[in-house]
Design a protein that fits this description.
It is a single chain. The chain is of the alpha+beta class. The chain has three domains: 120 residues, Thiol Ester Dehydrase, Chain A, CATH 3.10.129.10; 157 residues, Thiol Ester Dehydrase, Chain A; 217 residues, Alpha-D-Glucose-1,6-Bisphosphate, Chain A, domain 4. It is built from nine helices and 25 strands. The strands form four sheets. Strands 15, 16, 17, 18, 19, 20, 21, 22, 23, 24 and 25 form an eleven-stranded mixed beta sheet that branches. Helix 2 runs antiparallel to helix 4 and helix 3 packs antiparallel against helix 6. The chain is globular, with a radius of gyration of 26 Å. The two termini are 44 Å apart. It binds coenzyme A and adenosine-5'-diphosphate. Coenzyme A binds next to strand 2, strand 6, helix 3 and helix 4.
Length: 573
């Protein structure tokens, strides 16, 4: 029976269950996050190695938010699997739950994504085989993994740019309450670790999880020096292992509280490796930023003392911690909300632009991956499907066109041309070409609001080329708000949560084009009449779209760089 289950199981899936013993716990009887990070890294690395068939190293960890602490006597369950392989790197998804053995209850502890890189035997870079996703959930993770990779690879530069641009504003207000003032210097920790064989794999490379555990240790000491209590680690910001370290290296770990907010503090940790060989220079292994809280017996956060930074680097880090907090909060607002809870018009501000673009594309990919679409109408092979889920209604219109997919992508991603075929678009003006793949438009619709005014929209259009063969071209739309373009008296400002095109190359020169739209009140009459079969608007609109595409086949695709698949290193970036 068990064998049958294993037959259908993803071959890279690894399960690990650990009973939390006092030796894994801190003095409060809670599992130390460092130990958990070691288990996460071990299980995730095994998944990566199962796929790669060779040794792998941890390249990076995405943000991790810890929802629950775990107590001695409970069981920790980890489930990891490779979501997608790129060239030499793979994204591994990790799910951690805790289980109370006495009453059988289970809680989510955290969800994480790590990137592992396959290590070549010689000088040749490893070329990994692709992951073939089978289940609906695997297909979704596979699809969004490309978007997460894109965000990961721009993360360091993006944060650097935001920190240089950010004004040094102190967010802590007097009315927040203050619980004393502590000199940042008093929280400073320095510690050394010697990398021994049990800390490393069989090739002598230090396990990433071991380094994370050592980092968590020094960060916790720094945090406790601020509050004179036992702090709880709530989040670790995305970080990257810049270079390997080996058995015999001495790792110097340094930590300090960079800033304390009302009920959370940011601790920064920096790791450097020193070799016992005199001629090898010290190496910066990584730096991470961790958020701690101090929870009382009712799990309520305590008010923290204020921090007084050292002049120079201390003040810089204090200001940068303020900026990182703002970025963190903006990101949480955009990314961690459930689809139905995402606020519609999120302001387009520098600190959340990368995340809004991510959210735009990943929301559309989520809608595309749904399987419960129902065919509502079909006219001359143009099909209208609907989907009702969690009280949200969505529609999809699909047709096949004799045109090259790349040309269709170039034409449909230029929203300013949409009024040429879509009668619901009165006017569309490019407001901001953010980068090669993201642009903001002002759209005036021919649909009137209940106030009898035309509706207008501020739309972020994000387009993506296929990351690999089999991926579609994607053009995603969502509303944002621009301070420079507030709602006017002339129009009723309306919003769209998730819409866009998926363009799939087919046999010959055929292309399947699917248009998706999640229901918002702005489209109510359009969608209900079409679904009820009372109107064939959807057909006439998409027939006009086909005609527009065919007539414009000579469009320049210069702005669309050729898709190099997985061979193109940062093709999807
Ligand atoms: N996050 C995720 N993946 C990253 C990354 C990041 N911040 N930076 C690089 N990568 C990926 C690249 O996209 C590339 O993937 P691909 O081959 O699928 O396209 C892969 O890493 C290799 O990139 P490349 O540019 O060839 O090498 P690099 O010089 O950037 O090195 C590492 C990347 C990870 C190999 C290197 O930094 C390293 O050895 N780090 C230490 C790893 C380690 O030992 N970890 C254990 C604890 S020390
Ligand atoms: P930065 O100094 O620009 O923040 P680093 O990578 O040098 O970046 O360090 C990351 C974090 O590690 C710092 O923000 C700080 O919190 C901590 N750190 C760095 N150097 C020291 C040090 N000498 N002593 C204590 N903590 C340090």
């Amino acid at each position: 029976m068990e064998d049958c289950v294993d037959d259908v199981r993803n071959p890279t899936e690894v399960h690990m269950s650990q009973m939390v013993m006092p030796s894994h716990a801190n003095h409060r009887g809670q599992l130390s996050t460092g130990q958990l990070l070691k288990w996460i890294d071990t299980a995730a690395c095994l998944s990566a190695e199962r796929h790669a068939g060779c040794p792998c190293v941890t390249a990076s960890m995405d943000d991790i938010y810890f929802e629950h602490t775990i107590s001695v006597g409970q069981v920790v369950n980890l489930k990891t699997k490779v979501n997608r392989a790129f060239n030499s790197s793979m994204e591994v998804g990790i799910q951690v739950t805790s289980e109370d053995v006495c009453d059988g209850k289970e809680w989510n502890v955290c969800q994480a994504y790590a990137t592992f890189v396959a290590q070549a035997q010689g000088n040749e870079k490893v070329k990994l085989k692709p992951v073939i996703p089978l289940t609906e959930e695997e297909k979704l993770e596979y699809s969004i993994a490309a978007e997460r990779r894109r965000m990961r690879l721009v993360h360091t530069d993006n944060i650097k740019e935001l920190l240089t641009k950010s004004a040094s504003k102190d967010e802590r207000k007097q009315e927040d309450g203050v619980n004393g003032i502590v000199l940042a210097l008093k929280t400073r920790v320095e510690s050394v670790e010697l990398v021994l064989p049990p800390h490393a794999n069989h090739q002598g490379n230090t396990f990433g999880g071991q380094i994370m555990a050592w980092m968590e240790n020094v960060a916790t000491i720094a945090a406790s020096r601020l509050c004179h209590a036992y702090p709880t680690l709530k989040a670790i910001e995305m970080f990257h292992f810049r270079g390997p370290s080996q058995v015999g290296d001495r790792l110097i770990l340094k930590a300090i509280v960079n800033n304390a907010f009302k009920d959370s503090m940011e601790v920064g940790v920096c790791v450097e490796a020193f070799s016992h060989k005199m001629d090898v220079p010290r190496r910066h292994i990584n730096s991470a930023f961790m958020t701690f809280m101090v929870l009382d017996e009712n799990n309520h956060p305590s008010v923290l003392p204020q921090i007084k930074p050292e002049p120079g680097d201390g003040v810089r880090r204090y200001n940068e911690a303020n900026a990182r907090r703002k970025i963190r909060l903006d990101r949480k607002y955009v990314i961690s909300c459930k689809q139905s809870e995402v606020p519609l018009s999120v302001p387009w501000v520098p600190s959340n632009q990368v995340y809004l673009s991510y959210n735009n594309v990943s929301s559309l990919k989520m809608l595309v991956s749904k399987t419960k679409w129902v065919l509502a109408s079909e006219i001359n092979k143009v099909r209208l499907y609907t989907l009702e889920e969690d009280g949200i209604l969505s529609f999809r219109v699909e047709m096949k066109v004799s045109i090259d997919a790349r040309q269709a992508f170039a034409l449909l991603s230029d929203l300013s041309r949409r009024s040429k075929w879509d009668t619901y678009y009165k006017e569309c003006r490019l407001l901001q070409q953010v980068n090669e793949d993201d642009a903001i438009y002002h759209v005036i619709s021919t649909i009137r609001s209940t106030e009898s005014k035309f509706q207008d929209f501020i739309i972020l259009a994000s387009r993506r080329q296929p990351c690999d063969t089999g991926d579609p071209y994607v053009v995603a739309f969502r509303s944002v708000s621009l301070p420079t373009h507030p709602a006017s008296e002339e129009y009723t400002r309306s919003e769209t949560l998730c819409a866009g095109f998926c363009i799939w190359p087919q046999e010959g020169n055929m292309t399947k084009i699917s248009y998706y739209n999640q229901f918002t009140p702005a489209f109510v009459s359009y969608i209900t009449t079409n679904i009820a079969g009372l109107s064939s608007d959807f057909y006439t609109t998409f027939q006009a779209c086909e005609q527009f595409l065919v007539e414009n086949t000579k469009v320049s695709t210069a702005s669309v760089k050729p898709s190099g698949g997985r061979d193109a290193k940062h093709n999807n970036v």
